[in-house]
Design goal:
Elements (H helix, E strand, L loop, with lengths): L3 E7 L5 E8 L4 E5 L4 E8 L5 E3 L8 H5 L7 E2 L5 E2 L3 E4 L2 E4 L9 E2 L11 E3 L5 E8 L10 E9 L4 E10 L3 E2 L3 E2 L15 E4 L1 E5 L12 E2 L11 E2 L9 H6 L3 E6 L7 E7 L5 E7 L3 E5 L7 E2 L5 E2 L6 E5 L14 E2 L5 E11 L1
Antiparallel strand pairs: 1-2, 2-3, 3-4, 4-5, 6-16, 7-10, 8-9, 11-12, 12-13, 13-14, 14-29, 15-28, 17-20, 17-22, 18-19, 18-21, 21-24, 22-23, 23-29, 24-27, 25-26
Length: 345
C-alpha cells in the first residue's frame, strides 16, 4: 500500500479534480483537492477485512452538487450563523444566507466547493491551502488557510487547521465526514459515547437558543455508551425539530487541550473510532436529511446511513456572548487539530 495521486474526475466546467491517497501501510485515506474532501478511509475489521468507513461517492459529480457536505473541509465559519449576520466591535457584517434564505450555513459553502492547492505530499501526509478574498461571502479579511491530513502510526487520521486574515474576523473550521464503521447499512446500531455534560438546545431553525443545558435525564445523554438509535425517534422536542441528532455538545476539558472527546463502536465488525480534539464543541449529526442517491459500490445513501462528529466552536458563537468566542484579530493565527483514531476488537 503506497501513497498515490490520481485523476478523480472533472467539474461541470471541465476542471480536473485530483485524489491524493496517504497511508501508514495499515490504514489509508483519500483526499480530493476539491473542497479538501476526505473521500475515503480504509480500515480493517476484527478479522482483518478492510472496508471504507465513510459515506460518499465513486464518481465526482455528486461532490459538486450534493448539499450534504460529504467529507468536505468546512469554513470559514462551520455550522450556523443566525440571520446570516454577526458583529465585531459593534460593526455588523451580513454574510451569505444559503439555508432557507435566512441562515448562513458552513460559511456559505465557499471553502467546501472550491479548489485547494495540494502541497507537501508524501506517503503519510498532504497539505491543502486556500486563499479567500476580503469580503468573500460577506466575511471580512483576506484569509490564508491550510489543512493538513496525516495518517498517524496509531492508525489515526489527523487533521490540522491553520488560518489567519488581514482583518478581524471569525474563524471556525471542521470536517464533515459521515462515518459508518460497518461500511454498509445504517448507523442506528452503532454505540456512541460523547464526553459532554451539556449541549446547546436549538430552535426550529436549528439555531442555538443561548442556553447551555445539562444532558442528564434527556435523550442527549451520551456520557456512557448508548446505541445511537435508542432515543432518536423519541418525542423529545429537540430531536423532533431536527429530525434526529443535529446538536452541539459542550465538551469536557479546556479549549486548546487535546483530549479524547468521543468514541464510536460497531459490534459486528469490531471497528472502534476514538475522536480527539482541542476544540470546545462537537456536532453530532445523524444524516437526517441525506438525499437518496447511489453511493459507493452501488449502495444507496439515505437517512441515517452515516453520522458526523464535527469538532468545532459552538454554532452561532458570535451572536451568543456566553459561548466560547472565536473572533480572531488581524494577523492572529487560528490553529486546531482533530484526530479520528481507529482500532478493532
Amino acid at each position: 500500500m503506497k501513497s498515490s495521486k490520481r485523476l478523480f474526475g472533472k467539474t461541470s466546467d471541465g476542471r480536473e479534480v485530483y485524489a491524493y491517497t496517504i497511508t501508514n501501510g495499515k490504514i489509508s485515506a483519500e483526499i480530493l483537492d476539491f473542497g479538501a474532501t476526505l473521500r475515503s478511509i480504509y480500515v480493517p475489521d476484527k478479522n482483518g477485512n478492510t472496508a471504507d468507513v465513510t459515506v460518499g461517492y465513486d464518481d465526482f459529480a455528486p461532490y459538486e452538487t450534493s448539499t450534504a457536505y460529504e467529507g468536505k473541509t468546512v469554513g470559514r465559519y462551520a455550522n450556523r450563523l443566525s440571520g446570516g449576520r454577526f458583529e465585531i466591535d459593534g460593526r455588523e457584517y451580513n454574510v451569505e444566507k444559503n439555508e432557507n434564505g435566512v441562515t448562513c450555513l458552513h460559511g456559505g459553502g465557499e471553502f467546501s466547493f472550491n479548489f485547494w492547492k495540494a502541497e507537501n505530499f508524501s506517503d503519510s501526509t498532504v497539505t491543502f491551502s486556500y486563499e479567500s478574498e476580503d469580503g468573500a461571502f460577506g466575511f471580512p479579511g483576506k484569509m490564508d488557510a491550510a489543512v493538513t491530513f496525516t495518517v498517524t502510526e496509531r492508525n489515526g487520521i489527523e487533521i490540522r487547521y491553520r488560518a489567519s486574515a488581514d482583518k478581524d474576523t471569525i474563524i471556525n473550521f471542521t470536517n464533515h465526514t459521515y462515518f459508518n464503521l460497518a461500511g454498509k447499512g445504517d448507523i442506528l446500531c452503532h454505540l456512541l459515547k460523547i464526553n459532554a455534560n451539556a449541549f446547546t438546545p436549538t430552535d426550529k431553525m436549528n439555531i442555538p437558543t443561548g442556553e447551555i443545558k445539562s444532558v442528564a435525564s434527556t435523550p442527549m445523554d451520551f456520557r456512557e455508551f448508548k446505541v445511537i438509535g435508542r432515543d432518536i425517534g423519541s418525542d423529545y422536542e429537540q430531536l423532533v425539530n431536527a429530525g434526529g441528532y443535529d446538536h452541539n455538545f459542550c465538551l469536557i476539558g479546556e479549549k486548546g487541550q487535546m483530549r479524547a472527546v468521543a468514541e464510536a463502536y460497531d459490534t459486528v465488525s469490531g471497528r472502534r473510532m476514538t475522536v480527539y480534539t482541542d476544540l470546545p464543541g462537537v456536532q453530532l449529526y445523524t444524516g437526517n436529511f441525506i438525499e437518496r442517491r447511489t453511493g459507493k459500490g452501488g449502495r444507496e445513501n439515505y437517512k441515517n446511513c452515516g453520522f458526523c462528529l464535527e469538532t468545532q466552536y459552538y454554532p452561532d458563537t458570535p451572536n451568543q456572548k456566553n459561548f466560547p468566542q472565536c473572533t480572531f484579530r488581524a494577523g492572529e493565527e487560528y490553529k486546531s487539530a482533530t484526530v479520528f483514531e481507529f482500532s478493532a476488537d
